[in-house]
Design goal:
This protein has four domains: about 1-140, Glutaredoxin; about 150-290, 2-Layer Sandwich (Alpha-Beta Plaits); about 310-440, Nucleoside diphosphate kinase-like domain (Alpha-Beta Plaits); about 440-620, Nucleoside diphosphate kinase-like domain (Alpha-Beta Plaits, 2-Layer Sandwich), CATH 3.30.70. About 45% of the residues lie in helices and about 20% in strands. The chain is built from 29 helices and 17 strands. It is globular.
Length: about 625
């Protein structure tokens, strides 16, 4: 199954003007991701496009990627950072979407595909457009002038060039180093793999030409591929000294003694082979940026805002009788539900969450209401989510809500016989993050990419893990022997599939990871999908097992089933690392233990019975 999927090409790659003209002559609607060579195509939209293609199954819908620098027709799009999607029909431009705005991309695809069908089937006139933004640039832009180095990067931010050197790349450490860079809070603006010629290496290091080992340095830096990065920090923070502190002293032995956690201490072997490079100062950073990325230029327009989050609670009385109506009202108001959890709260948990209200006259009634049945916690996402959700809720006082805001959710959904409103919303963005962390704390879980998937789909799976918002805090590629595999899966010893499973896991290297995210255990299980890839393709078509698994046994990835299981397996694989459970993780486990969701319990019982016959989700 996975082999067949791999043959299906979602996006046509256009390399030159001839291919461009050939693709545009195709019948139907073509959606083209126009990208710059230094940053590559927009990977975050691939899942969306695959979903749309699978759902529509329409032969008139095509997707393509095209590098602006290599195609004459795209000359005016060169040097632009913002993701740009051009919609063509009959060889003509019919729509443009800038930014990876999933709802807008999908809406435009559906509208333009329907319009093109009317053109083809009923002879209607096609609505051809011109890219207005390019026309405005032509009208307002002065004659081209030489761009100064300091104009090549985002305003308000400092930057530096970082290089992962050939020794670290050759040992397969590039991805691991990049993850550590991101975990340390650096923003990667560009990442290019390239092999320098001797002439380029000599020119790049010309300021060190008088050193004794200059020739050896040039030979080394041109001996294999490097990863060249542009990294930045938040506004107001100077990235150069921060980066140099992070990589450590040039001399690896000094780094190991003085900065054992630095990149050079961890990945370097000697002064020359010290794994990473960083600019010394702003002037050198500008020169190095121009050397590696002469066309790198970010638009100075206002960056699109990150959507805000807020917490919503649906209390027991309404949850029991009108849950679906409330959820539909939330969606109709334009909110996305990022996370949800149905739980049964204890009195202690209610007192902790509402600790600022404990002394109020109404608190006993609130406590009784909050512990009378399951509560549904939701993390809602939207621009200005806190403000919009509170406006939608209406006044907290029920009589005020009924009299002054009869269309508000509290007025519509709170039973008349109760004095406690049935819906909660965070009071501010700061409070929202605290409350979301209370119900959806950052957790850690063990994840593994199994041998066959690691060999065939490593990069694709890692991209999806990062796109799903997980942080990879620890990573280890390892070959399990029979003894270790049997201990790792000891809870399944004696089951019919045990020998097959352990033998399979010893077939080749696995990639073991500790993933961190809010609600990480369940989020990772959702990303993996059902154990059986056939079931996954039906119920979770975008899951890892749907896309990359071959069978129930060879199902691509592994994940822990709960926090206790995750803690045990993380210690087993990674040894004596800092894995003490946080208060929030303990609270989460308490929530899970107290959950009164009978449907979920029923599913767990069914899964337990199924485990006796075949690998379970824990075999992941």
């Amino acid at each position: 199954m996975a082999g067949k999927k791999k043959e299906i090409i979602l996006q046509i790659t256009i390399h030159n003007q001839e291919q461009w003209e050939e693709v545009l002559s195709s019948k139907g609607l073509i959606v083209v991701d126009v990208y710059q060579a230094w940053c590559g195509p927009c990977k975050t939209t691939v899942s969306l496009f695959r979903k749309i293609k699978n759902e529509l199954g329409d032969d008139l819908l095509h997707f393509a990627v095209a590098e602006a620098d290599s195609i004459d027709a795209l000359e005016k799009y060169r040097g632009k950072c913002e993701p740009t999607f051009l919609y063509f029909a009959g060889g003509d431009l019919v729509a443009v979407v800038r930014s990876a705005n999933a709802p807008l991309l999908q809406k435009t695809i559906l509208e333009q595909l329907e319009a093109e069908k009317k053109v083809l089937n009923h002879g209607l006139e096609r609505n051809v457009i011109k890219d207005e933004e390019l026309l405005e640039e032509e009208e307002t832009s002065p004659l081209p002038t030489q761009i100064e180095d300091e104009e090549l990067v985002p305003s308000g931010k400092s930057y530096t060039v970082a290089i992962i050197k050939p020794d670290a790349v050759a040992h397969g450490k590039a991805d691991e180093i990049i993850m550590k860079i991101q975990d340390a809070g650096f923003e990667i603006l560009a990442n290019e793999e390239r092999t320098m010629t001797e002439s380029e290496a000599r020119d790049f290091y010309k300021h060190r030409a008088g050193e004794e080992k200059f020739h050896e340095l040039v030979q080394f830096m041109s001996s294999g591929p490097c990863h060249v990065l542009i990294i930045s920090k938040s506004e107001g923070e100077d990235v150069i000294p921060t980066w140099r502190e992070f990589i450590g002293p040039t001399d690896v032995e000094v780094a190991k003694k003085e900065k054992p956690e630095s990149l050079r201490a961890q990945y370097g072997t000697e002064v020359l082979y010290n794994a990473v490079h960083g600019s010394n100062d702003r002037e050198q950073a500008s020169r190095e940026l121009a050397f590696f990325f002469p066309s790198f230029k970010l638009q100075q327009t206002e960056e699109s805002r990150t959507p805000e989050r807020t917490l919503a609670l649906i209390r027991p009385d309404v949850l029991k009788d009108r849950k679906d109506e409330v959820l539909q009202s939330i969606r109709d108001a334009g909110f996305s539900i990022a996370m949800q959890k149905q739980i049964m709260l204890t009195k202690q948990q209610v007192q902790e969450f509402y600790k600022e209200h404990v002394d109020q006259e109404y608190f006993p009634a609130l406590e009784q209401q909050m512990t009378s049945g399951p509560v549904l916690a939701l993390a809602l996402v939207k621009d200005d989510a806190v403000k919009h959700w509170r406006n939608l809720l209406g006044p907290a006082d029920l009589s005020e809500a009924l009299n002054e805001a009869p269309d508000s959710l509290r007025a519509r959904f709170t039973p008349r016989e109760t004095k406690i409103n049935q819906l909660h919303g965070s009071s501010s963005p700061v409070e929202a993050e605290k409350e979301i962390n209370f119900f959806f704390p950052v957790e850690r879980t063990l994840a593994a990419i199994k041998p066959d998937a690691l060999e065939e789909h490593r990069d694709e799976i890692m991209e999806r893990i990062q796109a799903a918002g997980f942080t990879v805090s620890h990573i280890k590629e390892t070959n399990l022997n029979q003894e270790v595999a049997e201990e790792f899966y000891k809870e399944h010893k004696g089951k019919p599939f045990f020998d097959q499973l352990t033998n399979y896991m010893c077939r080749g290297p696995c990639l073991m990871m500790i993933l961190s995210k809010e609600n990480a255990v369940q989020e990772w299980r959702s990303l993996m999908g059902p154990t059986d890839p056939t079931e996954a393709q039906t119920s979770s078509p975008e899951s890892l097992r749907s896309l990359f698994a071959k069978s129930i046994l060879q199902n691509a990835v592994h994940g822990s089933s709960n926090l206790n299981h995750a803690m045990e397996k993380m210690k087993f694989i990674f040894g004596d690392i800092e894995l003490e459970r946080t208060n929030n993780e303990t609270l989460t486990q308490s929530f899970l233990n107290d959950t009164a969701d009978e449907v979920k319990q029923s599913d767990e019982n069914t899964a337990t019975e199924k485990n006796e016959a075949q690998p379970s989700q824990e075999d992941g």
